[in-house]
Write a structure and sequence with these properties.
By secondary structure, this protein is an all-alpha fold. It is built from eleven helices and no strands. The termini are close together.
Length: about 280
């Protein structure tokens, strides 16, 4: 139950972070947004160090660095995806891809689910698909470029979560600190190389920083959830974050919510209830 609640918190934080990051990337080049979001996320994790501790072992350094590279790719691809839009379609596509890979890894590593979990897990995956059903009358169809970016973002997010899960369970927030330091360095290096192509538009500083802070909170909650529960279950619950993104897009941007998405939200609630029994 603790793992489930932590995963739900991670899902909510990811959904809010993605909405703010995607919205911020509409105002300036995506790298300008990530240049603010990634360091802001690192600051949060450094502030958590004295409270949660950190053990910088070889495993924590290696897996943390790997998650950082994946995180940098995920930041850029995801915010570019959501900036292109429509958010209410592309965010769930990304989430579905990001859920499938960790589920496969968890099952290969020997995780086993009870009867309720065997029903709840595929139901949760179905919920992610239903939430992405934005092709009703008046809905905007995503471009091929946007879909490819969404698939790439999903794969990068999945790798980031898998790498964090592989880090030693007694390493505290060390994998998060190393990962965010690496992703910040990669992002700033890419921005320096592409400086002339970034344009002159100023990024939405507060929005971008808030996205980074929320992403850091989401990563921490996921790490704690994965350490106290099964990766397969935690990854799927976390992947329900599009529900938050879709609702925010509806409230703030007036993006249409199709009937299938409403069914998906109800399906997600049912899936979470079943997984809570696992």
């Amino acid at each position: 139950m603790i793992a489930l609640l932590l995963a739900l918190g991670s899902s909510l934080a990811y959904g809010c972070a993605d909405f703010l990051g995607g919205l911020g990337a509409r105002k300036a080049h995506v790298l300008r947004t990530v240049m603010i979001a990634a360091p802001a996320s690192l600051v949060v994790e450094l502030l958590l160090w004295p409270f949660l501790g950190a053990s910088f072992s070889a495993g924590a350094l290696g897996w943390g660095a790997a998650s950082g590279v994946a995180s940098a790719a995920a930041f850029a691809l995801l915010y570019r995806t959501l900036a292109i839009g429509p958010m209410n379609v592309l965010s769930p596509v990304t989430a579905l891809v990001s859920a499938m890979l960790p589920v496969g890894v968890g099952l290969v590593q020997g995780e086993r689910l009870g009867a309720a979990g065997l029903v709840g897990l595929p139901l949760a995956l179905a919920a992610v698909v239903l939430v992405s059903a934005g092709h009703g009358s008046g809905a905007v169809r995503p471009s091929r470029t946007a879909l490819l970016s969404a698939l790439g973002a999903g794969a990068a997010i999945a790798l980031q979560l898998i790498f964090l899960h592989q880090a030693p369970s007694d390493s505290g927030v060390a994998p998060l600190i190393i990962g965010r330091a690496v992703s910040s360095a990669v992002t700033l290096g890419a921005a320096a190389l592409m400086f002339r192509r970034l344009g002159s538009e100023r990024p939405a500083y507060a929005m971008s920083a808030a996205a980074g802070v929320l992403d850091s909170v989401a990563n921490l909650l996921f790490l704690l959830a994965a350490r106290s529960g099964d990766l397969a279950v935690v990854a799927v619950i976390t992947a329900l974050y599009p529900a938050g993104t879709v609702l925010l897009a509806r409230s703030v941007l007036a993006e249409r919510i199709h009937r299938g998405q409403l069914v998906g939200l109800g399906t997600a609630a049912a899936a979470v209830s079943l997984l809570a029994l696992t």
